[in-house]
Amino acid sequence: MKLDHVELSALTPEILRVFGQQNPLLTAGDRSGLNTMTIGWCQLGRLWSVPVCTVFVRPERYTYQFMESRDYFTVSVLPPELKKITAFCGSRSGRDVDKVKECGLTVRCGAGDAPFFDEAEWVLVCRKLYAQDMDPAAVLDGEIILPYYGEKGGWHRMYVGQVVEAYART
Description:
By secondary structure, the chain is an alpha+beta fold. The chain is built from five helices and ten strands, in the order E-H-E-E-E-E-H-E-H-H-E-E-E-H-E.
C-alpha cells in the first residue's frame, strides 16, 4: 500500500479512533531542517468555516523553534507496529539525536514544504492560522491540569492550523 492524497472527510471516523490509541508525530520544518515529536494532545474540528487541527507544544521543546519559524506543520499517525518509533520520538530530543535518521523514516513534503513520513497510516498537513500561549489564569478546573505542569516545564503554546492536505494508505 502506498500513501495517497485523500479528502479529509475520508479520515474523520479514523481520526476519532486513532487519537488516544496511537499518539501522532508532530513535525515542523522543511527540506533543509526539521524536527518531530510525539504528541498526546491534539484537537480536530472546524473553526472560521475551515477544517482545523490544534496542537500544543511547550517552549522548552526543540520542535517549538520549528513551529515558530515555519507556516506549516504536519500530524502523522504511524501504524501500531511502529510504536517503537513513536516511543523513541517521544523520549529523545532532536537537539541530541537525528530522530528521522535514527528511526529510518522516509521524509516527504506536502503543501508549504511541510515534512511528513511515508511510513504513516495517514497525515494531516496544516497551515498555521493562530498561535497563543495557554494562560494558567484561564484554567477553570485546576485539579485536572496538576499532572501536566509544576516541575514539568512551561505552559504550552497552542497552534491552530487549517488542514490543507490529507494523506492516507490506499
